[in-house]
Amino acid sequence: MKQNKVPVSEYYTKMRGIWEELDSMGELLVLTVLTDEIVTFLNALGKQQQEHKLFQFLNGLDDEFGPQRSQILLMTPLPSIEAACVMLQQEELQREALNEVHVQQETSALLSKGIERSSEGQVLQIIGYPNWHPRSRRFPQKRGGRGPGGGGTGRGQGQRFMDRNREAEPRFSP
Known about the structure:
Elements: H1 8-25, H2 36-59, H3 66-73, H4 81-112, H5 120-127, H6 158-167
């Protein structure tokens, strides 16, 4: 079973239901005498089953939890499934909170300019283009021209070179 973009808690609940159903199908023998060896064996078997369930759970997680999966598998001793689930839920909540902050910042920046969420092109037209952009107010458009330079170099540099030449005009002193 895979997580498939559902919340971690929902994925864990589905996995737990499957494990409980599988556990109910297994028939266990009733032991009348418990020796130390049998108790040790049953404890080891229970630990192995819990680790197997942890591996199943971690293996079914979405790829976005890859770093957390690796971090959990490096822990010694391995955490319980419940503890691993709590760690993953905390990570999920942190990501959601950061995503909400990012969306709120973007939206509030646009709203402060009197703009509702829109495409980047619309924002540039309303707020204004950068100085280097051909549609910038700094470079008035001329009819039939090739952009801000009026066709000078073909790279939008003509106006800048013309301005430099004007500033460098020689001065005459009497």
